[in-house]
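ok so i was messing around last nite and threw this chain in just to see what happens. nothing serious, just curious
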Amino acid sequence: MQHFYKLGLALWMTLMSVAVQAGYAYNLPEPVTPIARETLHMHNLVMVVILIMFFGVLAMLIYSFYTHRKAAGFKAATFTGPTNRKQWLWALFPFALLFVIDYGVFGIPAYHAVVLYEDTKTDAELVVKVTGSQWMWQYDFPAEGVSFTSRLITPREQIDSGAVKGEHYLLEVDNPLVLPVGKKVRFITTSNDVIHSWWVPAFGVKRDAVPGFLREFWATVEKTGTYRGQCSELCGKEHGFMPVVVNVVSQEEFATWLASKKPVATAAAAAPAVPASATAETAPGVTDKVAVVAKAAQ
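result:
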């Protein structure tokens, strides 16, 4: 008995420690996309139904064990299968009930969620290509001509030397992805080397980036803020150092950010053209200026 007491005390102290409860939550992250809301709805529905089934079966077992105990004069049955209508009813009813729950209660909402998740092209307002590499992400906006990489910037001393960890340890990058709020974004994923997986829990989306394949998903983020995730497919020794950071901003802020990411060549191309008739004699210094602009465009 003393051993059980010590074991219970140790377990209680472990569970009540601050370190254990630091990242503890009773539910999924707050959903900020339609897909995330569907996922949370399915999760809650399944939890409610299976808890009702669990306690219902447990109550029946306790009642049966107590009522049909040997001390009350009951003897164990000798049959090996249903032999009358009542026994067949007790055998088939649970099967029919589980069939209805699986295909009706769970199946219809799950089918709706899958169809919603795969509807990538309808009314998409922005396309982002996500390319996984060992060990960073590359983001491309094909229509806008913008491309950049996103790498982990957590200091190595925090990782290797036991230095004090930052607020967003292993979840901070140099160039976060920026998206406009309320816009349907179509994501296309692929990889340069091995299989990676782009995952942001608050978005309710996770899609593998497979070499040689283009795979799609979509998200409409309904709330501004910074959302963090990471690669969720084991992709090598630096797998744990491949975070995803997404800043969701207003349309005006997004347009400003996008303009700042466009290549310098765009500004050079917008420079006024020099007339063909101009020469070094008639327009002193023009030739030198054209050369400088051309060099900057390169």
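not much to say yet. Strands lie at 126-133, 136-141, 146-150, 177-180, 184-191, 196-200, 205-209, 215-220, 225-231, 243-249.
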